[in-house]
Amino acid sequence: MTEPAATMGLAGLGVYLPPQRESAEEIAKRSGLSLEELAGLGIQGKALPGPEDQPITMASKAAQAALADAGDCDPASVDLVLYTGEEYKDYIAQTASIRLQEECGCRNAWAFDLVGQGVTAVLGLKIAWDLMTGDPDINTVLLAGGTRNIDLVDYANPDTRFLLAASASGGAALLRRGLEENRLLGAVVETDPAMADEVYVPGGGTEIPFAPDNLDSPLMSYQAFHPGLLRPYLEQELAARLGQATRAALGARQADYLALRHLTPAQRGQVLKALDLAPGQSLPLDQLGHHGANDPLISLEMARGQGLLAQGSTVALAAAGIGFTYAAAALQWGTS
Question: Exposure string (b/e) for 111-132, b if CB count within 10 Å is 16 or more?
Fold first, then answer.
């Protein structure tokens, strides 16, 4: 773990969840799975986006909530806006961060998009701290992202059932230089290049462009290209690597709460065991689904709302995504 050279604290947190829900019964009907099988995937329901719930729109709502949560933050004081949502967004080749900048009133900031396939919010924490360390003019950073990768999941594809929990949301965090409250302690990002081409959406890129005969085909949804390789990796490697990244971010510290991405109950158990945590120290997202990069922010907001974050406690945020990529960060909650 590398300690931040510049002190940076979390000044505001914001989450937006679409009000509509898809029940486990509805998911079972669409997927052909039983409720017991869905429970084994950690799925008891999830947020369902409406036509107005586009990724940037949801990110903007979360960003405005984070600015309000910070209390005294004038959007014009934000120096940098980072889009930390998924690559699939409102329009192809749109710079989402600049749209966010305008919608949130961050007129004096500059902006760019990050792509992290499920880890971008945690990656954004590391990038923000790195940029603050290298540029004394960056004092306030707004991270915000939206996801509706649910659109890219074929419920009936048995090879991509691990993606059935995909949902929709916006998540945001406001970060300030010199803030001793909710201070970043460290962050780690790791990748597994051997798994780079195992899961993706084949259609719509330069290799297989959009065409009249492929718009409604499986080319437009997630595909697993070597299921026999992917299945044991998900069962045996993903949780272990996620636990390792989290341990690296924590260093010698012991986490008091783990804001963990959505996992199956078996995977959650593996991660908690590796980190010597009890089940009550990490709230599951079984009722809300998987929100990609937003999962740790949603878990953190849930824990805050339930009073699980004590002053001075150590909080870990942990995420993983296809690629495969892993990211974790450690915060000291409140003040010491």
Answer: bebbebbbbbbbbbbbbbbbbb
Residue 25 CA to chain centroid, in angstroms?
A: 26
- Per-residue model confidence as pLDDT tens for the chain (336 residues): 555 667 899 999 999 999 999 999 999 999 999 999 999 999 999 999 999 999 999 999 999 999 999 997 899 999 999 999 999 999 999 999 999 999 999 999 999 999 999 999 999 999 999 999 999 999 999 999 999 999 999 999 999 999 999 999 999 999 999 999 999 999 999 999 999 999 999 999 999 999 999 999 999 999 999 999 999 999 999 999 999 999 999 999 999 999 999 999 999 999 999 999 999 999 999 999 999 999 999 999 999 999 999 999 999 999 999 999 999 999 999 986
* pTM over the 0.70 mark: yes
- Outline where DSSP puts E strands in 225-310: 257-260
User: Does the fold of domain 185-332 match that of domain 8-180?
Assistant: yes
CB-based contact 169:16 (threshold 8 Å): yes
* Cβ 317 vs Cβ 123: under 8 Å: no
Tokens 């996992």, located at residue? 263
Question: Which residue is associated with the tokens 């960003």?
Answer: 63
Q: Are strands 314-321 and 325-332 parallel, antiparallel or unpaired?
A: antiparallel
Where are the chain's structural domains? 8-180, 185-332
Helix (H, G, I), strand (E, B) or coil at 297: helix
**Architecture (CATH level 2) of domain 185-332:** 3-Layer(aba) Sandwich (3.40)
What CATH number belongs to 8-180?
3.40.47.10
